[in-house]
């Protein structure tokens, strides 16, 4: 009788262990695996979107084809974002696809999401520097005159804090400084650009405007 009781207890304990193991694996492994699968699907859409965008940029001679490829890139980016909303690269892709369609204000909003605090963590420093350059450019394309100038200047400055030797960003900043009538600052910035690339057309023509 005692033996039987021990056997029953042993079986029950065994069942409990099996149940506990299943419960824990569902609780902890399930979501991770599902998340991993979602991330993989998001990557897949991201890659398809990036390819469509690259193709769209190469067919400038065929505007309607370029437009439909940019739209395709946009919807792939949307699917990637739905699956993995915190992946900054997907928001950057969406911004670039919208920009390619000439939809600058919408592109700017996507770039704002990419650079928002909870999303931006997933960008490497050099990606972040590029994203800041891109947003600065979009800020300038979405408004004539002064309205976005300060914000654009700030984005270019932050971009240069990460990658100080980017001639393109230096020239974009210098043009903004010219528009801001900060001529001494603009000149210093062109000098920095020319030190890095003496052949830069943008920097040379900027210098020519400031020191005619
Ligand atoms: C832009 O111009 C304003 C007003 O003149 C000035 O206060 C500000 O410092 C300038 N910004 C930069 C980055 O030079």
From TrEMBL:
List the SMART domains. Answer: TPR (SM00028)
Checking PROSITE patterns in the record gives:
TPR (PS50005)
Keyword Cell division assigned: no
Going by the UniProt record, its keywords in alphabetical order are: Membrane, Repeat, TPR repeat, Transmembrane, Transmembrane helix
Xref: InterPro entries: TPR-like_helical_dom_sf, TPR_rpt, Ycf3
User: Which Pfam families does the entry mention?
Assistant: TPR_19
Specify the protein name: Uncharacterized protein
Q: Which organism is it from?
A: Adiantum capillus-veneris
């Amino acid at each position: 009788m005692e033996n039987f009781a021990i056997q029953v207890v042993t079986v029950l304990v065994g069942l409990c262990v099996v149940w506990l193991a299943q419960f824990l694996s569902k609780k902890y492994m399930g979501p991770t695996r599902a998340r991993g699968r979602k991330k993989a699907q998001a990557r897949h859409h991201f890659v398809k979107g990036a390819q469509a965008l690259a193709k769209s940029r190469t067919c400038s001679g065929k505007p309607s084809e370029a437009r439909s490829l940019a739209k395709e890139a946009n919807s792939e980016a949307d699917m990637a974002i739905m699956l993995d909303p915190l992946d900054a690269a997907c928001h950057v892709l969406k911004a670039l696809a919208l920009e390619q369609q000439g939809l600058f204000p919408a592109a700017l909003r996507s770039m704002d999401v990419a650079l928002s605090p909870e999303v931006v963590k997933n960008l490497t420093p050099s990606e972040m520097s590029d994203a800041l350059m891109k947003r600065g450019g979009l800020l300038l394309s979405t408004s004539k005159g002064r309205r976005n100038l300060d914000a654009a200047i700030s984005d270019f400055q932050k971009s240069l804090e990460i990658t100080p030797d980017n001639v393109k960003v230096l020239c974009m900043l210098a043009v903004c400084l010219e528009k801001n009538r900060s001529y001494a600052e603009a000149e210093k910035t062109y000098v920095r650009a020319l030190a890095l690339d003496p052949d830069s057309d943008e920097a040379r023509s900027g210098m020519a405007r400031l020191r005619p």
